[in-house]
Recover the amino acids of this structure.
């Protein structure tokens, strides 16, 4: 089958049947366009002419500029593409031996509660546009939402009376997330003083910009970049790091891991367990700082210093 036709049919199938998130489909599409472009440059225009050596060459080329996480995703996209062709058209799968070193698991970066408080206090809620910005960041943090879940949130899924959100997450899986009581007045304020002003035509979207259009994930990313510069934050804060902050602060507050898993919408508890490593790292840091052995060294230094002065 011609490469372009095969890729088009694969992407149609992904959109309709596989239930992958919009972001995953976009990432797979980008990866596979790079892959098929590489094949075409090497004179391969038909899927039945692809052999493992071409895949290996492509991955080796990509490894020079991409992280291990990006390579792992790219390998998953290529395997998925060839599995589709093998299943639907009985083609040989040349990706069977494709393996990529697993990405190292880094501890997630998160904000302190003081940083969150400074961020949220930096908005002037009398300005409708700043009120919108404040509300969307507050909801991402206080409810642990993905940025895509926040910008796609529909108004009929926000129940202010009962204090709950019905969030449509990855794979169109719905979950119920409680809204903290401190966030509810802000939501009410946004609805009456910002959304009502921005509303140009009927829409179910909860968040709309001053043009009455959908708020994009990119605009939320840019907003946080501006705020980091404005507030002189040393760390680079993203919407996903606000979600990390939510999970970390929940765990610090005594929430159990299963509850955090449910509220984050993780299908696997192992994904949520990364936050226990964050807590363990904090405990280790505190241990090093306040352990009696460390304090004894400090006392010894003080005693030596006093003796020196007395001489």
């Amino acid at each position: 089958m011609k490469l372009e036709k095969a890729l088009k049919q694969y992407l149609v199938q992904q959109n309709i049947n596989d239930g992958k998130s919009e972001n995953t489909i976009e990432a797979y599409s980008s990866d596979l366009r790079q892959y098929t472009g590489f094949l075409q440059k090497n004179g391969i225009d038909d899927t039945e002419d692809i052999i493992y050596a071409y895949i290996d060459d492509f991955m080796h080329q990509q490894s020079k500029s991409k992280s291990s996480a990006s390579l792992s995703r790219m390998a998953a996209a290529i395997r998925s593409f060839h599995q589709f062709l093998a299943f639907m058209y009985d083609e040989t799968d040349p990706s069977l031996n494709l393996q990529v070193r697993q990405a190292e698991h880094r501890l997630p970066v998160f904000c302190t509660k003081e940083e969150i408080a400074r961020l949220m206090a930096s908005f002037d809620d009398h300005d409708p546009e700043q009120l919108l910005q404040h509300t969307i960041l507050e909801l991402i943090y206080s409810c642990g939402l993905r940025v895509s879940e926040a910008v796609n949130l529909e108004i009929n899924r926000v129940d202010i009376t009962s204090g709950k959100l019905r969030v449509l997450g990855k794979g169109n899986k719905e979950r119920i997330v409680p809204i903290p009581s401190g966030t509810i007045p802000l939501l009410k304020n946004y609805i009456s003083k910002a959304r009502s002003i921005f509303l140009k035509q009927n829409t179910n979207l909860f968040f709309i910009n001053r043009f009455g259009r959908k708020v994009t994930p990119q605009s939320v990313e840019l907003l946080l970049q501006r705020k980091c510069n404005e507030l002189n934050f040393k760390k680079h804060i993203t919407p996903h790091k606000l979600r990390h902050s939510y999970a970390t602060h929940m765990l610090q507050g005594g929430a159990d891991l299963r509850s955090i898993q449910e509220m984050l919408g993780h299908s696997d508890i192992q994904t949520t367990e990364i936050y226990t490593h964050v807590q363990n790292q904090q405990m280790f840091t505190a241990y090093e700082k306040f352990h009696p052995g460390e304090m004894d060294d400090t006392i010894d230094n003080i005693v030596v210093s006093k003796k020196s002065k007395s001489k």
Q: What stands out?
A: The mean pLDDT is 84. DSSP finds 14 helices and three strands in the chain.
